[in-house]
Amino acid sequence: MGQDLEKILVTEEQIKARQREMAAEIDATYAGKDLLLVGVLKGAVMVMADLARELHNPCGMDWMAVSSYGAGTTSSGVVRIIKDLDCDIKDRNVLIVEDVIDSGLTLSWLVGNLKSRGPASVEICTMVRKPLAFDVELDISCVGFDLPNEFIVGYGLDYAEHYRNLPFIGTLAPHVYQG
Ligand SMILES: O=P(O)(O)OC[C@H]1O[C@H](OP(=O)(O)OP(=O)(O)O)[C@H](O)[C@@H]1O
Ligand code: HPA
Ligand SMILES: [Mg+2]
């Protein structure tokens, strides 16, 4: 796997340290309140598992799986629910947990969908934000790292379903895309 990588952008240690800070922010924001973490499958599996274990206050955990349609590799913003939440979020404080916000279109749709269910609040926490996400009106309360517009893998992020299990975030060598 090592020869497939071009460079490491965020090390395992940097992820762990930043996650502790993010968890402290979340603990402070939701102190004394009911909190439900909603992870977006499959990319958010790592960040959800690690972030939840850094929280000191109790929280619920639920999952959604969604799929974006569109030609090419960019998200069209038209989203289909593959797996819905198991629980009712009415009057609950929802914190969506994501691995990356790239175009922002997936999350923009998801926030609208979840808000229509009558929650007390819907906020967003993401490990990585890319520059394009600034063009979409999204209120992101918690960001791990702002990274440039490059395709990244690791820590949940995949290329063709590979590399999700890397403990760091990096870019792939050109030969991987060229086959
Ligand atoms: O901001 P956007 O441009 O909409 O892209 C971000 C979304 O795309 C990726 O998920 P993907 O749909 O590839 O599925 P996965 O989580 O199973 O990898 C990523 O995990 C985010 O959920
Ligand atoms: O940079 C990325 N890497 C992997 N999956 C993604 N989904 C949106 N952007 C990315
Ligand atoms: Mg995803």
Concise summary:
The chain has helices at 12-29, 45-54, 105-115, 174-178; strands at 5-10, 35-41, 60-69, 78-83, 93-101, 121-129, 142-146, 152-153, 169-172. The protein is α/β, with parallel strands linked by helices.
Structural notes for this entry:
With 179 residues, this protein is α/β, with parallel strands linked by helices. The chain has a single domain, classed as Rossmann fold, CATH 3.40.50. It is built from four helices and nine strands. Helix 1 packs across helix 2. The two termini are 14 Å apart. The relative contact order is 0.21. It comes from Haloactinospora alba. GO terms for molecular function: guanine phosphoribosyltransferase activity; hypoxanthine phosphoribosyltransferase activity; magnesium ion binding; nucleotide binding. It is found in: Cytoplasm. Keywords: Cytoplasm, Glycosyltransferase, Magnesium, Metal-binding, Nucleotide-binding, Purine salvage, Transferase.
Number of helices: 4
SSE order in H/E notation?
Answer: EHEHEEEHEEEEH
Distinct ligands, ions and cofactors found in the model: 1-O-pyrophosphono-5-O-phosphono-alpha-D-ribofuranose, hypoxanthine, magnesium ion
Q: What radius of gyration results from the CA coordinates?
A: 16 Å
Helix-residue proportion: 10-25%
Main location: cytoplasm
Family: Belongs to the purine/pyrimidine phosphoribosyltransferase family.
Subcellular location: Cytoplasm
Cofactor: Mg(2+)
